[in-house]
Amino acid sequence: ILLASGERLSIGEYIDKKITLENTISDGFYEKHTLPLVSINQKGRLEKLFSDIIWKRKSPPFLYKITTASGRRITVTGTHPFFTSTNAIITSVPAQDMHIGDFIAVPRKFTIQGNNKFQVKYNKIQSNNPVRLQPPKEVYPWFASFLGLFLVDGYSNINSKGSAQILFTNNNEYLLKTYKHALELLGVNYFTRKTENKEFFEVICGSSELYYFLKAIDPSMVAGSTFKRVPNILVRATDKIVQYFLRALFDVEAFVEKNTVSIEFTSASYKMLSDVQFLLLRFEILCQITDKIVNG
After folding, report:
1. Do 66 and 73 form a contact (C-beta atoms < 8 A)?
2. What distance lies between CA 10 and its chain's CA centroid?
3. How far is 95 from 64, CA to CA, in rounded Å?
């Protein structure tokens, strides 16, 4: 679900933490709970609202998977309401009554004030004279660019002894310089070498503290490509910071489709694409998510 701050929240995980199981109904539990959300009003505009109740109910035998023309996907129960337009008025229709081609109201623009402050707790290395990470307490433009570059062209791992390896692979001089400058601002050591085929450069950092810091920001930062997501510290950031982040993503992984006016950004993670699609709404840029088969 989407909070008024712009952050995402896993509804299942959140309710499991908040619900007490004291108030029962025939097929589950409920709890009075206030949560700042974003919703569409009857004029089709986004507004800040507050939840009043959370539910945890037994799942029915059948669920409905809804896919929009823009590639948004959601799986819901048959009674889950969707906003649609009837005679230019926003009304709700349960999923079980929806048909192919029906209109579903979704935002064309999302505006928030934004907040670049953040603080996370991460593991610090206990050793003699360690090279200490210098973590920022705010998402600065250079750090937004660093996160964007690392998300699409970075790789990391850590062994059982706590030794980490953080790599960034590219052949663009400007992007390599941008990435290395960020490492210097973070206070960590690195070195650069050519890949075996001599076509790319690898920037290699062995800071375990940086690994734990990235993981604390969002576990997907150090996960495989199919699990990548845009961290919440960027989703709720100001427009300026989001611009730096999107620029880094598209500098690495986007291209202009031949003989078209389309710009394509590719990822193995649907959630990553969904996050980018949402961030583009901050600038009234609409896009579609489609499947792409690569090498079969």
Report:
1. yes
2. 12
3. 7
Please tell me the total number of residues recorded for the chain in this structure. 296
pLDDT in tens, 82-124: 988 777 778 889 999 999 998 888 878 888 888 999 999 998 8
CA angle, 234 as apex, 67 and 68 as ends, to 5°? 10
Cα dihedral sign for 267, 270, 275, 276? positive
Two structure tokens written together for 277: 């699609």
Residues 228/234/235/239 CA torsion (nearest 10 deg)? -140
* 266-286 per-position pLDDT tens digit: 999 999 999 999 999 999 998
Q: How far apart are CA 192 and CA 295, in angstroms?
A: 31
* Bridge partners for 37 per DSSP: 3, 49
242-247: long-range pairs with CB below 8 Å, 24+: 242/114, 242/144, 242/279, 242/282, 243/283, 244/141, 244/142, 244/144, 244/145, 244/148, 245/144, 245/145, 245/147, 245/148, 245/279, 246/148, 246/276, 246/279, 246/280, 247/145, 247/148
Is the pLDDT at 296 greater than 70? The verdict is no
Q: Helix 173-186 crosses helix 239-253 at what angle (to 10 degrees)?
A: 130
Paired tokens of 247: 């620029």
Distances from the Cα of 268 to the Cα of 224, 227, 228, 294, angstroms: 9, 8, 8, 10
Helix (H/G/I), strand (E/B), else coil: 116: coil
